[in-house]
Amino acid sequence: MTGREQGIFITFEGGDGVGKSTHIRFLADALKARGFEVLCLREPGGTTVGEQLRAVVLDPAHEAMAPEAELLIYEAARAQIVAEVIKPALERGVVVLCDRFYDSTVAYQAFGRGLDRAFVDAANSFATGGLVPDRTILLTLGDASSSAESGLVRAAHRAAADRLELAGFDFHTRVAAGFLALAEEDPDRVRVVDSSNERSLTSAMIFHELSDLFAWMRDASVCCEEFFAVLDDPFAQSGSFGKAMGGEQRG
């Protein structure tokens, strides 16, 4: 689906191990099957500059990195991806799905590291040029303490932990609390979805929170139980969800 006057910018937030990647991929395939042009990104990253900065800021070898330096690296990567990728894509009418954006910086660097919130907000505004997501899906695993503990357990099953994953339980509890505080501050934009349920139920809740942006998501004949059930199929999760959705469609 091309020719849209303006794209839609959706961000996914939450601590480590809450399932952002899985649900972004499912949503992307669902949108593509409806004819939308979709771009999936991650922060930090998404550009040559951003990926190099990502390697620096997440490297466990950089244990001595100051919180102030950490913040500025994230903002540098964000400024690059907004200018080089996100804004041009939105101007072309693309649906942009981003794994983390400025809410993560507030949660991790302001709530987690204790940097001044006003300064972090100003740095975010500068790096984004004032760009605000149309919708943010905050995936959680319960309250702040439970979300931090469960997320770290899930993350531990992945590859070697990065520098932030090694920051400890107390740090991640503050981060989780920060995310919940952001949702309370801006409930119209930030929608909280509990991802501790089956993936199919979590995805159904995500689609519900996006249904005002995409009218077809309100169609029960499309977004039915069978539509989401593929998420609970380990075989389907190993590849694209596209075939299980019936391939490319238009409308």
Description:
With about 250 residues, the protein is α/β, with parallel strands linked by helices. The chain has one domain (about 10-235): P-loop containing nucleotide triphosphate hydrolases (Rossmann fold), CATH 3.40.50. It is built from 10 helices and 5 strands; from the N terminus they run E-H-E-H-H-E-H-H-E-H-H-E-H-H-H. Strands 2-3-1-4-5 form a 5-stranded parallel β-sheet, with helices on both faces. Helix 3 packs parallel to helix 5. The N and C termini lie close together (about 10 Å). Residues about 245-250 have low confidence and may be disordered.
Main-sheet strand order equals 2-3-1-4-5
- For the termini, the CA-CA separation is 8 Å
Radius of gyration: 18 Å
Name of the level-1 CATH class:
Alpha Beta
- Main pleated sheet: 5 strands, parallel
Number of helices: 10
CATH topology: Rossmann fold
Just name the CATH architecture: 3-Layer(aba) Sandwich
CATH superfamily name? P-loop containing nucleotide triphosphate hydrolases
Could you spell the SSE succession in H and E letters?
EHEHHEHHEHHEHHH
- The number of distinct β-strands equals 5
Helix-strand makeup class:
alpha/beta
How much is the average pLDDT?
Answer: 88
For this structure, the quaternary state is single chain
